[in-house]
Structure formats: C-alpha cells, structure tokens
Amino acid sequence: MSDNNVVSTVEAPDVPSEGKLSSLAGDAWLELRSRKIFWIAAVLVVVILLMALWPSLFTSADPRDCVLARKHAGAGGGALFGYDFQGCDVYAKTVYGARDSLLVGISATLIAGLIGLVVGLLAGYFGGWLDALLSRFVDVVLAIPFLLGAIVLAKRLASDPESNGLFAVIVTLGVLGWTTAARVMRSAVISAKNQDYVTAARMLGASPARLMLRHILPNSISPFIVVLTVLLGINIAGEATLSYLGVGLKGDAISWGLAIAEAGPYARTVAAPLVWPSIFLAATVLAFIMLGDAVRDAFDPKLR
Q1: Residue 215 maps to a domain
Q2: Alpha carbons 23 and 299: distance in angstroms, whole number
Q3: How far apart are the C-alpha atoms of 59 and 16, rounded to whole Å?
Q4: Using alpha carbons only, how large is the chain's radius of gyration in Å?
Q5: Which of these, 51, 126, 211, 226, has the minimum number of CB atoms within 10 Å of its CB?
Q6: Mind listing the pLDDT tens digit for each residue in 38-63?
Q7: Half-sphere exposure (Cβ direction) of 142: Cα atoms closer than 13 Å
Q8: Cα(74)–Cα(90) distance, rounded to whole angstroms?
Q9: Does any domain span residue 62?
Q10: CA–CA separation, 69 vs 93, rounded Å?
Q11: pTM score, two decimals?
Q12: Does the CA dihedral 257-262-266-272 come out positive or negative?
C-alpha cells in the first residue's frame, strides 16, 4: 500500500471556549450569588453606607438640635425613637452616627491593611532572617493586651482637650489591629511564591519587586481582603468600646459608641437612646462579619 493511500486522522484536542473559561474570582462570584447570607449582608452594608454618605435620605432632623424641654420624651413629632437626656432626636443621632463610626472603621482598616500587607509580603517572599525578625515583631504586638494598649495609646494621642478623638481612635485601632492580616498575607505569599509561574518569571529575569507586585500579590490577595472585611466590623465595634470607656470619640463627634456611652447612665429611665444605637451597631458589625465569612467560603474551594 502506497503512502498516498494512507490517510492518518489526528483529532484536535478539545479547546474550551472563552465563555467556558472561569477564573477564581468568577467561580467565587457564582458561589456568592447562591448564598442568602451574602445578599443579606450586602443589603445591610449598602444601607449603612448610604446612611453614612447621605444621612439626609433617611431623616431631615438635625441631630444637634437639642431642647432640654424634650428630655426623655417618647416617639412623636418626627422623632421615631424619641429623645435622649439632652432632648436630642435619637433617630437623627443614630442615622448621623453611622458616618463617624464607618469613618473610623474604614480608616483604621486601611492603616492596618497597609501595615499587614507590607509586613506579610516582605516576610513571606524573602524569608530567612527578615521573616524571623518580622514574625517576632508580630508576636510582640500580639503580646500587648489589646484593650489596655488601645486605652493607653488613645488617651496619649487625644491629649488635646479640643480634639474630638477621631484621629486618635483611627490610629490606635489601625496600629494595633494589623497582626492577623500580616500573618494571612505571609502564609498566602509563601504558598504563591513556590508556584510555577513565579519560577518562570524569575528565570526570565523579573526583579523581586516585579515578582511581588505583578505575580505574587494578585494571586495571594483574596484571603487578605477577606480578613480586612471582617476586621472592618471589628474596628467599628472597637470604636464603640473605646467611646464607651471614655477614651474614644468626644466633643462634637456623633457615633454609635458615643451615643451608647451617653445613654448608659439613663438606661433605667428610658431605654430607647441606648437600645437603638446598639441595634444599629450590632447589625453593622454582623453584616461585615457575615460578608467576610461568605467571601472566604466562596474563595476557598475546600469550604464549598
């Protein structure tokens, strides 16, 4: 049989279409869309963000319009939650309190995230003595009792009697709250730097900075973002704790923690000024924690 009569057939390998290609983020989004907890948390977060950015959408009352004649008056006249011991509209103060509470939470989380990102990235990539040094530094920060350290640092930073304590609380929570984020980033970087694509980029002459920023960081950022989401809720609760103890926000600031602290001594007389800010605070913290848990489960295939 001649070669001309031999017909060889080679089947082309199946190449998935572009529409079938899915990334980790795409798979995570598909997982998130089917989770009720994610949607409940997302709706709560959106409402709280709108409340912080545009409080006039929720109330037309002035939270600083206080008349002693209305002290501890019940609901009525547009005041859905009644009035506090100064005759201020509790509902208006609760709505406007979202702004400073979220401002503290977001700002402190950004500071903690930046410190945790740098420390975790450097420790995980270089390893060796730098990893040991940074890990011991993390251990030192973890050894500081959080509440005690926060009280001391916040009081020192807010020593100016004219300060409203906003800057002090943000710096305090940010400086003391980055350790978990750093550990998570370090672990993710150690896992990512041993992948084949990093080895290939290193063999092609990529510099350490390019390897960290262009190859390792984008592939190890997911668990880090999840930690920051949960940390945001923790920082909002931390501001309320410091304000309640008298070392947080003060003066003309309006926050849920400050409202709870002011209403505490009068809780037996009237409960509304204490209960409603507490409910909004708890719902916000719970929303961010649920959102972080949902995102974590979506990005981790082992938990699906």
Answers
A1: yes
A2: 11
A3: 53
A4: 26
A5: 126
A6: 899 999 999 999 999 999 999 888 88
A7: 11
A8: 10
A9: no
A10: 18
A11: 0.84
A12: negative
CB atoms within 10 A of CB 296: 18
Q: How many CA atoms lie within 13 A of 295 on its CB side?
A: 19
Cα–Cα distance list, 209 to 119, 124, 218, 221 (Å): 14, 13, 13, 16
CB 217 within 8 A of CB 200: no
Are 280 and 256 in contact by the 8 Å Cβ rule? The answer is yes
Total domains in the chain come to 1
Residue 67 placed within a domain = no
Looking at residue 244, its amino acid is Y
Per-residue pLDDT band for 235 (boundaries 50, 70, 90) equals very high
What's the token pair of residue 67?
């008349």
Tokens of 12: 């082309």
Q: Which domain holds residue 188?
A: 28-53+82-303
Q: One-letter amino acid identity for 238?
A: G
Q: Hunting for tokens 């509304």 — which residue is that? A: 272
CATH code, domain carrying 88: 1.10.3720.10
Burial of residue 76 (number of CB atoms within 10 Å: 0-12, 13-18, 19+): exposed
Q: How far apart are CA 155 and CA 260, in angstroms?
A: 19
The reply to whether 119 falls in a domain is: yes
